[in-house]
Amino acid sequence: MSRKYLVMLFVMILSACEKTPDTNEVILKYYGDAYEDIGYSVAKVENGYVIAGQLTEIKRDVSNYITGSAKRFGVIKTSSDGNMIGERIILGDSITAIASKVLALTDGSIICTGYVNSTKTQQDILVVKLDNKGKILLQKIFSSDGNQYGTDIIKTQEGFLILGTTDKKREPSTDFTGNAAGKKDILLVRINENLESVGLPVATGFIGNDEGKVLRNDINGGYIVVGTTDRSDKPKSEQAGNNIFLLRVNADFSATQFRILGGVKDESAADIEVLSDGYFVAGTIGNDGDEQSGYVWSISSNINAGPVSEHAIDIEPSLTAKSSFSLKAICRYKINSYLMAGQYGTGSSARMLVFSTDADGNFVEGKIKVEGGTGSQVAYDIISDGDDIIAVGKNSYENNSMISLLKFRF
């Protein structure tokens, strides 16, 4: 037999013995170095994913001892199986900078927002645009008299709209209007394709601390924000602690309607989905470290009307003693379903949590994943790529944490 046919036979034998990839395989990847590395946001890009968050830049001497570190605005690109293709650390001097949200654009580029500490006491919004190779195309810092940071960003006709938070004093400051310096307000910043400001930033909110979590395009052509406030429209005996709020914004970027959800336990916002006839809001009730659980509200297009429905989520229907869990993000999943992600348990035994619900927010039995190794884990963001489910967060052990990516199928 000729050498050519021997080679062909050998290749055929190898092909026959090759293991078919298991599409239901759980992929759990970690990225980072020493100290704190955290993944806050994930987006689907061609042939993989992009993670934005915090990467701690480590300096070592010739003996490999750590001589210094700094928190950086970090972006990681991975293949579809989670293997790291590359990373980009932005602002390479001693300034602290952290990314909170990444958005994939139709031309293959990505845009991220977060914040940078321009000085030890001054925090400003940072926006960075990168191409599909990780090259920085544009970056812009937005400064003000107070401290501000970006939490979300969406595409608009004129460019982009940033959802941020500011603690700048807002006049006139009375018992019913404005806000005192140092108290948090919702901030909306319009920018064009070149990341230049369009008009003046709009600060709004109640008296006290209000922090926007998620920004979405609204039903009416405007925008809607969900977040957490320390304000209550009811006596503390009925509505104590923080509450979730909804803020509607017109197409001209003027705030129009506020709505405070409450009356349960201490609440914190996780996410919102805009429906054809209203909104689906998810959050956590209960204080951090205590007994917590996920909670959902269905709201009509008239956000000032009472909820169409609301209820706690039971992810352990067969158990009498329920475990504590919190929600950080949700996303659409297949047809008429949601994925919810966060943290299961507390302390060093906490794990990444992902589960599925129906369109009303009811837990789908058997559709749950609790994942993690040594230390404490949490998922901060989640997306669905067809049947694939991708969550990102962090894995913490003692004084260190690494960015974590979990990919699997139910």
Could you characterize the architecture of this molecule?
- Helix content is 4%, strand content 55%.
- It contains one helix and 28 strands.
- The protein has one helix spanning 3-17, and strands at 27-31, 38-45, 48-60, 66-79, 84-90, 97-104, 110-117, 123-130, 136-142, 148-155, 159-166, 185-192, 202-204, 210-217, 223-229, 243-249, 255-260, 267-274, 278-285, 293-300, 309-312, 325-333, 337-344, 351-358, 363-371, 376-385, 388-397, 400-408.
- A four-stranded antiparallel beta sheet has the order 1-28-27-26, with no helix packed on it. A four-stranded antiparallel beta sheet has the order 2-3-4-5, with no helix packed on it.
- A hairpin with a 5-residue loop joins strand 6 (97-104) and strand 7 (110-117).
- The longest helix is centred in the N-terminal third of the chain and has 15 residues, at 3-17.
- It is globular, with a radius of gyration of 23 Å.
Topology:
Layout: H1 3-17, E1 27-31, E2 38-45, E3 48-60, E4 66-79, E5 84-90, E6 97-104, E7 110-117, E8 123-130, E9 136-142, E10 148-155, E11 159-166, E12 185-192, E13 202-204, E14 210-217, E15 223-229, E16 243-249, E17 255-260, E18 267-274, E19 278-285, E20 293-300, E21 309-312, E22 325-333, E23 337-344, E24 351-358, E25 363-371, E26 376-385, E27 388-397, E28 400-408
Antiparallel strand pairs: 1-28, 2-3, 3-4, 4-5, 6-7, 7-8, 8-9, 10-11, 11-12, 12-13, 14-15, 15-16, 16-17, 18-19, 19-20, 20-21, 22-23, 23-24, 24-25, 26-27, 27-28
